[in-house]
Design goal:
Helices cover 84% and strands 0% of the residues. By secondary structure, the protein is an all-alpha fold. The protein is globular and about 70 Å long. The relative contact order is 0.10. It is found in: Cell membrane.
Length: 365
């Protein structure tokens, strides 16, 4: 098979894959969720199997514990977060009024020094971009909600996902070995190398980053609650969970937490304590959690991750959000592989070596 034929085959395969995802997007969610859970729990099952426990027993124990914890979170923690979130939204207008009263004079003093024309142009630009951004985010959320929270989809997640995750986790190593046996022998080495890089990327980002987000959410939630911040637990927990989107989670969480603290405490020691909680969280993430749990094998740029998540949500809803990082990882690895092939090819080296006698000074006297 020539290079052109291979390129045509993979192009048709990719188009067909995304077409099938789009065609069956309404029913794929529980299967994708089950696959993600099986992938997430596979290392734990391997460790139990290495200790002499059969794969079926290990899978049963791990799957049961995972979904028991999930039900605990769903039945106990989610209602508490929901009540705090509802209370926060109810109090939000009051926080805004307090901020305008306390901070308004300082902002007005600064704005008085800016030329009116400049201020008006900046204000118009912000209003226009904000309206566009809100409209775009609304469309994304509509697609996510319509694709992920319909009643039938919820029931399928509740009943089908545990079954899918159990069988996939039990047979994970067999499935991988069977796929490996079907690889073309000539290209098997390169495909395995790409698969290892994809696994390193997903393991670092999905397994590692999700653990970092949960730990950060608990730290911020407990820290802000102990600092006396109203709705501190839900603000901290959401800050940690949204940290899955690089930079955005921390910036958004700090902005909300700082604003609520400023409205509640004003300028003073308590506000400083809230700021210190966020600073300590960043130090923990940057110096301990991310290096230990994620490592340096992720290979996914923050901008690429944000684009993948938003694009996936806009096109395929919640299913697209779940598929975004794996697809981004695959594309990233394939691009790096193609770049390595190009750098090792004659196309890159052609003409780089000077011809004999062309611009080369003689070393002879």
């Amino acid at each position: 098979m020539t290079f052109r034929q291979q390129a045509r085959f993979w192009l048709v395969f990719t188009i067909g894959f995304f077409f099938l995802v789009w065609l069956f997007s309404s029913i794929l969610l529980p299967f994708v969720a089950g696959m993600a859970i099986a992938y997430f729990l596979d290392p734990l099952a391997d460790k139990l199997e290495a200790r002499g426990i059969s794969r079926t027993v290990a899978t049963s124990i791990i799957t049961a514990l995972f979904f028991l914890v999930f039900l605990f979170v769903l039945l106990l923690i989610v209602p508490m977060i929901g009540s705090q979130l509802a209370g926060f939204l109810e109090r939000l207008p009051g926080y805004v009024d307090t901020l305008q009263t306390n901070v308004g004079p300082y902002l007005q003093h600064i704005l008085d020094r800016v030329a009116p024309e400049t201020l008006q142009s900046v204000s118009d630009a912000i209003k226009g971009q904000t309206a566009n951004a809100l409209k775009w985010v609304g469309n994304v959320l509509t697609n996510v909600l319509s694709g992920g929270l319909a009643f039938l989809n919820f029931l399928s997640l509740l009943f089908i996902t545990p079954v899918v995750s159990f069988y996939l986790l039990r047979d994970w190593d067999k499935i991988v070995a069977k796929i490996d046996s079907y690889l073309p022998r000539r290209s098997a080495r390169d495909i395995r190398q790409c698969a290892r890089e994809i696994d390193d990327t997903l393991a670092g980002f999905v397994r590692g980053q999700s653990t970092v987000c949960m730990l950060l959410g608990l730290f911020y939630g407990l820290g802000l609650t102990l600092a006396g911040l109203e709705f501190g637990f839900v603000i901290g927990l959401m800050t940690g969970l949204v940290s899955f989107v690089p930079y955005f989670g921390m910036i958004a969480g700090f902005a909300v937490g700082f604003g609520v603290a400023l409205a509640q405490f004003g300028l003073g020691l308590d506000l400083g304590i809230v700021v210190i909680v966020f600073l300590i969280g960043q130090l923990l993430e940057g110096n301990f959690l991310t290096p230990k749990l994620v490592g340096d094998k992720v290979g996914l740029h923050a901008v690429w991750v944000m684009f993948a998540l938003l694009a996936g949500g806009a096109v395929f809803g919640l299913l697209g959000v779940m598929l975004a990082v794996p697809v981004a990882a695959v594309i990233g690895v394939l691009v790096r592989y193609g770049l390595r092939q190009y750098l090792d090819s004659r196309l890159y080296d052609h003409g780089s070596h000077p011809q004999e006698g062309d611009g080369v000074e003689s070393t002879e006297n």
